[in-house]
Amino acid sequence: MPIPIYQVDAFARRAFAGNPAAVCPLDAWPPDALMQQIAAENNLAETAFYVPLAGQEADFHLRWFTPTFEIDLCGHATLATAHVLWNERGFAKDEIVFQSQSGPLRVRREADGRLTLDFPSRPPRPLAPDEVPAVLTQSLGPGAAAPLAVLASRDLVVEFATAEDVLALQPDFGALVALGYIGLIATAPGPDGVDFVSRFFAPEVGVPEDPVTGSAHSTLIPFWAAKLGKTELFARQESARGGELWCRLRGDRVDIGGYAVTYLVGALPNLAGL
User: What is the pTM of this model?
Assistant: First the structure.
């Protein structure tokens, strides 16, 4: 049977902003190789696939594929999937529970239409000088400001003094691949009304710069909550498309909120013979 496909701009209030993700509802899992081929063909940061879980604690099993890699956690494609379920597929409850590689993930629908992800907190640890990858300076690109700190969780985190330092980065993508991490998060305090800004680079998994990265905020929220002494924060990811994130630290979990817009509705043909 043809596979439905939706393209959604996540962490945005209008089309052509935020981070586009593809979402494919399934009745059962096809071969992993086929899902990876679909993700590569879509050529978006992530394509999400989900199947229903009848009679279990979670409502759906959710998986995410970059163009080259199945990833363990993805915020914007989870937000996009929840948006599709509520706005395109008629899901009735006000909370969705997904089972995933990162455990149960909940998404809550707020009264104003904002969707809030309940994700694990992944606080970064500071790296000693001898733990910092030797290629870091090269990977940040010519003229990059000196980092204030280098930390790591799943991704490498580089803290800068100002938002302008983050915006000015012109990274060397070849050197970024040699860092040994899924991605590099560049972050700094934000301008008035914004607690912090970030950019995210992950060329190793086929995403040179991700427009808005929910999973990176699993690391950024505990980091900035500790630095700023507050648990509720507003963040912007300063890619060319840009995105807004409403953030909250809740112990070992984080809330990551944002809006989403459907851009495209379609169907993949029967791919069994390809």
Answer: 0.92
- SS3 label, residue 152: strand
Q: What are phi and psi of 195, to 5 degrees?
A: -75, -40
Q: How many domains does the chain have?
A: 2
97 and 177 part of one domain: no
Closest by CA to 195, choosing from 234, 229, 144, is: 234
Q: What is the pLDDT of residues 7-56, one digit of tens each?
A: 999 999 999 999 999 999 999 999 999 999 999 999 999 999 999 998 88
Catalytic residues: 46
Q: Give me the domain span that covers residue 236.
A: 125-240
Q: In this structure, is residue 170 part of a structural domain? A: yes
Measured from the Cβ of residue 95, the count of other Cβ atoms closer than 10 Å reads 13
Residue 140 vs residues 111, 157, 188: alpha-carbon distances, Å: 41, 12, 15
For residue 133, the tally of other CB atoms under 10 A from its CB is 19
Residue type (1 letter), 174: G
Structure tokens belonging to residue 137: 């300076």
